[in-house]
Design a protein that fits this description.
Elements (H helix, E strand, L loop, with lengths): L11 H25 L1 H16 L2 H16 L2 H16 L3 H31 L1 H16 L2 H12 L3 H17 L1
Helix pairs in contact: 1-7, 2-5, 3-4, 5-6, 5-8, 6-8, 7-8
């Protein structure tokens, strides 16, 4: 039997305070946050609808062309096309298109927010000296660290998923 890690101090009060803080924010500002993020949800929904409307063979052809242009490898292109056919054969096409839409929307947001921040950091040393340690920390954390607070604020769904993905993806864009 393994020894339990010793308790140096009682953390229940801190845990209750954090839970109460999140509950207060959700109760008082939850609707405001949802209204502010509605354009992001509409972007995601329109991308998802478009990708699910697009015929599967067109999607595979476009992704194969993008794969070839990025890799210049027929092996990689064939592998990507074969895996997409496999996804469709398993009946997971719509789920895959929803995931691609989420990644595309998160990429758009990360680029739109990250590039101006990166330019601002390059121009102002004070901002750079404050932001670089934060970016270092952000790049070492797994995506679930970002997901947990967003799920606590918004509940499970598309908004927490896209926000966690943006927060995970934005440090390299800013750098």
């Amino acid at each position: 039997m393994a020894d339990n890690f010793p308790e140096f101090f009682d953390t229940r009060g801190l845990r209750f305070a954090i839970d109460d803080g999140f509950s207060w924010v959700v109760a008082n500002y939850g609707d405001t946050f949802e209204r502010l993020l509605m354009p992001l949800l509409k972007l995601l929904s329109s991308m998802e609808t478009f990708l699910q409307w697009l015929p599967w063979y067109v999607t595979i052809a476009v992704i194969a062309a993008l794969t070839y242009s990025a890799s210049r490898s027929l092996k990689a292109t064939g592998g990507a096309a074969l895996m997409l056919v496999f996804i469709g054969a398993l009946g997971l096409w719509n789920d895959a298109m929803a995931t691609i839409a989420l990644m595309l929307a998160a990429t758009v947001v990360a680029v739109v927010v990250g590039i101006p921040l990166g330019v601002a950091m390059a121009r102002w040393g004070g901002l750079r000296s404050m932001a670089l340690p934060l970016l270092d920390i952000m790049q070492t954390l797994p995506i679930f660290v970002y997901l947990i607070p967003f799920v606590m604020l918004f509940g499970p769904g598309k908004i927490p998923a896209i926000l966690a993905t943006v927060f995970f993806a934005i440090p390299p864009v800013i750098r």
